[in-house]
Design goal:
The complex is a heterodimer of chains A (325) and B (289). With 325 residues, chain A is mainly alpha-helical. In chain A, strand 1 and strand 2 form a beta hairpin. Chain B folds into two domains: 49 residues, no CATH class; 210 residues, MetI-like fold, CATH 1.10.3720. The chains are: A mainly alpha (325), B mainly alpha (289).
Chain lengths: 325, 289
């Protein structure tokens, strides 16, 4: 039988055991704790196979010239990385992934905040219905939404163009997804529509930490809606802003489903993002370049890691700010 | 608090008039109509004639209700098989994720053991790894294990990697359960396994619900894994991959495609309608923790 810890602290936080004094042999301790290791076993095996080994293997693959069919893999050192640095299409995909983030994150965060503040008003009728409507796209399958959006924005029979033509806003139908000037912006618009609900729920959770009494007190003092928002709500939400911006930013790195189904990266690579470019090199090419694609994946993984580190730093800062505030 | 709130005067000079609330309602109603419009258009298109979709694309009510579109999507396009594949893959993934994450979360939360620190450190360090990063080795590994082009391979790829958030969710919940309950069970002679199955797991019902719902959503909606796992076995496609294939083959049959999309989206939308609380709580949890 193993010894449970005394303190009900969160994972990793418990310190000190209640074991009787005096060293016990390691083998004996491991045998005592056999149930613990048995419980960890499924996760240990699956996680090693499907997360840890792929992370390590990506680095190894990235040093190979390998097409995936034949068993011969030639070790080429850093040649794949040099090729990646010289690949204008990869940099275009990288830039477009980044642009996607810089454009959609502020829009999502700001729009969702406005909606959350409105929906958080306890006197607002139908608030739950509105929240459900705004959250609905979040639960739907992105790949299927992407296919459907292809029809919605179709220049011939799509409802968006029919509406624009009928309202007289455009003279000729706009080829939203077929024109390399508008395709990326259209995909961004659909992305914001699809995922706004997630950011909205983040903000609603943050707003719920602000007590209703604070608002009542401000209203009794005669403060109007905008002043309450600026002087009370906004400062109280400050620590959450960092977390919500970062969580929203991480979302935008995974736009593979939407891009592949709406535009397949086109026209002329104008909507290509890193994930679709990796997919194209590894799975959709006549001769797959698994080594090269792995090098791209490693570069992408490192870029993501930087973002995650930023997130960790931001979280620490936010926690401190909340404790101080 | 509420007593105090009830005491406040009904109308004070300078307080916002009720009209303002109704203006907000009108604006929000407009935005929400825009938000659900694509789905209304989709359902409407799935019931229209093939030509009517083009000629009367803005009318939401079809001239005649054409249920045969669903028959075409169901039988000819193979969406009956895709639906079954999606169900098997999704339910299999949910089962594995719940079991393995509950077990791991439990021992991490309540016990000290040799090697605990590195285990937790590795899990937290890999909390966020993008799919695009691991997909090539995962496919290669599945190929060598003979799991590529199989439903089991998809289930393992979806449930095996990641899921750190679910482990931490369970760990956080188990760590807050008081010791007394466990002590009482041990006093009654319950062993390690009985304590977990008889006391702890039933108490963690809310977490199991949240993890199940969020995993269901992620697995049902996943596209990358089933896409690369079914290249040479089209009959194993899930709904999302089947949809892309259907468009490739029948790009002019809009009403058939709309019917197929409606079939694919309906289960997850119904699930959301009935279990909305768990969806919202699961998402909101990311901010609170």
């Amino acid at each position: 039988m193993s010894t449970p810890t005394t303190s009900p602290l969160p994972a990793g936080a418990s310190r000190g055991t209640r074991r009787p004094a005096g060293p016990r042999p390691l083998a004996g301790r491991l045998w005592d704790d056999r149930w613990i290791y048995l419980f960890l076993l499924p996760t240990a095996i699956l996680y090693t196979l499907y997360t840890l080994w792929p992370i390590a293997a990506s680095y190894w693959y990235s040093l190979l010239d390998w097409n995936g069919f034949s068993r011969d893999r030639a070790f080429v050192g850093l040649a794949n990385y040099r090729a990646a640095l010289d690949d204008p299409l990869f940099w275009q995909a990288f830039r477009q992934t980044f642009l996607f983030m810089v454009v959609t994150v502020p829009i999502r965060v700001a729009l969702a905040l406005a909606a959350a503040v409105a929906l958080n008003n306890p006197r607002l009728p139908f608030a739950t219905l509105f929240r459900t409507a705004l959250f609905l796209p979040v639960v739907t399958t992105t790949a299927i939404v992407g296919v459907v959006m292809g029809f919605i924005f179709d220049p011939v029979g799509g409802p968006v163009n029919l509406l624009l033509l009928r309202a007289g806003l455009v003279e000729r139908a706009v080829n939203f997804l077929g024109d390399s000037d508008s395709a990326l912006w259209t995909v961004m618009g659909v992305h914001v529509w699809k995922w706004l609900g997630v950011t909205l729920v983040y903000w609603l959770a943050a707003l719920q930490t602000v007590s209703e009494d604070v608002y009542e007190a401000a209203r009794v003092d005669g403060a109007n809606g905008w002043r309450v928002f600026r002087d009370i709500t906004l400062p109280l939400l400050k620590p959450f802003t960092v977390i919500i911006v970062l969580l929203t930013a991480v979302d935008t790195l995974q736009v593979f489903d939407l891009v592949l189904t709406m535009t397949n990266g086109g026209p002329f690579f104008s909507t290509e993002v890193v994930e679709t470019y990796i997919y194209r090199q590894a799975f959709a090419a006549t001769i797959p370049r698994l080594g090269y694609a792995s090098a791209l994946a490693v570069i992408f993984g490192l870029a993501t890691l930087l973002l995650a580190l930023g997130q960790a730093g931001g979280l620490r800062w936010a926690r401190r700010a909340r404790e101080a505030g | 608090m509420s007593a105090l709130a009830n005491l406040r005067p009904r109308r004070r000079p300078g307080r916002r008039p009720r009209l303002g609330v109704w203006v907000q309602v009108a604006v929000l109603a407009g935005i929400c109509a825009l938000w659900v419009y694509p789905f209304l258009w989709l359902v409407s298109a799935s019931l229209k004639g093939q030509l009517e979709v083009f000629t009367a694309g803005l009318d939401l009510v079809p001239e005649a209700w054409r249920w045969d579109n669903y028959g075409r999507a169901w039988d000819d396009a193979g969406f009956d098989g895709y639906l079954i594949n999606s169900l098997i893959v999704t339910l299999g993934t949910v089962a594995i994720v719940v079991v393995r994450c509950a077990l791991a979360g439990y021992v991490i939360a309540r016990y000290r053991f040799v090697g605990k620190r590195p285990v937790v450190a590795i899990l937290v360090a890999t909390l966020f790894v993008p799919v695009g990063y691991t997909i090539i080795p995962v496919v290669e590994l599945s190929d060598q294990l003979g799991l590529l082009n199989s439903r089991l391979g998809m289930i393992l790829a979806l449930s095996g990697g990641g899921q750190v958030a679910a482990v931490l969710l369970y760990a956080g919940y188990f760590s807050r359960i008081p010791r007394d309950l466990e002590d009482a069970a041990v006093m009654d002679g319950a062993g390690f396994l009985q304590v977990f199955r008889g006391v702890m797991l039933p108490l963690a019902g809310p977490v199991t619900a949240t993890v199940s719902v969020l995993t269901f959503l992620a697995a049902w909606n996943n596209f990358f894994v089933p896409l690369v796992f079914t290249f040479s076995r089209p009959e194993l496609r899930t709904l999302s991959v089947g949809m892309l294939a259907f468009r490739g083959e029948q790009s002019t049959d809009w009403s058939g495609l709309a019917a197929a999309a409606t079939i694919s989206l309906l289960p997850v939308v119904l699930l959301f309608a009935f279990l909305q609380r768990y969806f919202i709580e699961g998402v909101a949890g990311a901010v609170k923790s």
